[in-house]
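Q: Fold this one first, please.
A: Sequence and structure below.
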Amino acid sequence: LSSSAALEGKGQLKFTSGRWSPHHNCTQIATANDTTVRGWDTRSMRQIYCIENAHGQLVRDLDFNPNKQYYLASCGDDCKVKFWDTRNVTEPVKTLEEHSHWVWNVRYNHSHDQLILTGSSDSRVILSNMVSISSEPFGHMVDDDELSDQDDQHQEEKIKEPLQDSVIATYEEHEDSVYAVEWSSADPWLFASLSYDGRLVINRVPRALKYHILL
């Protein structure tokens, strides 16, 4: 054991999740206990931020945006997924309320951080497109020199379009609570889900969305 920190509080504190931040030279970690999310500096083991009552009920899972510093996602038994900027934790940046029961898992896509995967006790896996808080809020960047006049006009029209966060797809192959979702580490368009029904289901990001992101 290299270092540790202890929490003080009434009753028995439940730790439900911990997540390393891929930023800041991997010196920060976030933990979830009961309804609170805390950030720690592993060099001093001191608390650097605290989101009290991050969720109305137990916080189940956390995940950091791999491509954008300070952005953290959380989910919990209040059926919500929340996105936080850890520099200002008074209010979430965005909130998703698409599930109808506990949200067990939230995962950012490693390559395209606008893609968010969630799994819930409502037996559903939901794929969301949170483009407005992603590292490329204006879409895939194209060098001006590579654009023809027609492409240039089309690109300008795309930029004028309002940013829209939306649910891309809802997957209902499971018959019981989905307690784990995970992106493939080899293929950014592939993801898996595990359920209490004893099944592992593998799905792909819809082809139309894949090409929209790439092109």
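Q: Good. Now the second chain.
A: Here it is, same layout.
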Amino acid sequence: FGISSNETFVITTTNRTEVTEDNFSKLVYDGVTLYLLQSVDQMLLLATKERIEFLPHYDTLVKSGMYEYYASEGRNPLPFALAELIDNSLSATSQNTGIRSIQIKLLFDDSQGKPAVAVIDNGSGMTSKQLNNWAVYRLSKFTRQGDLESDHSGYVRPLPVPRSLNSDISYFGVGGKQAVFFVGQSARMISKPATSQDVHELVLSKEDF
């Protein structure tokens, strides 16, 4: 790498976890992206890309959730899909010590591409590993790989109260990916963990699949 013998450097994961002699054996080697940095908190000069490998059935994403939504028997299915997306924000902001902010925007500006639904919140944010886990359909805490980057925090279920914006409003529990592909053709997740300076972005699209 062109590093001089007297130069100090660290190797970290994309979540800025330093790889040491103690945790090296816990790394899952296939497909793991590592940073070679001068310090753990060094600013990145360029954006990096990490490929997420998983093999769901084609219909799993592009048609998922359709049965549940249409099974609402006469009700407009769109609110149920939006409820799934809002649920993610409710979970992300459930531990906020200050104001919980959740915005829903309908974007129709052609200069920004196709119309879109944007759900924006000031929650805890997701690490690259949490985004990876979100992308993999039906990935439970029991089947995730036991490497040093595994995150089993998962969904924070609100206390049981009458269904409202302070409750778990996900009617069918089919998850955000199914809701996204019920409404549109692609998903873009942009998240900055509260404990990190890095901004992570995940893109899933029907066209890519």
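Q: Anything worth noting on the second one?
A: The radius of gyration is 19 Å.
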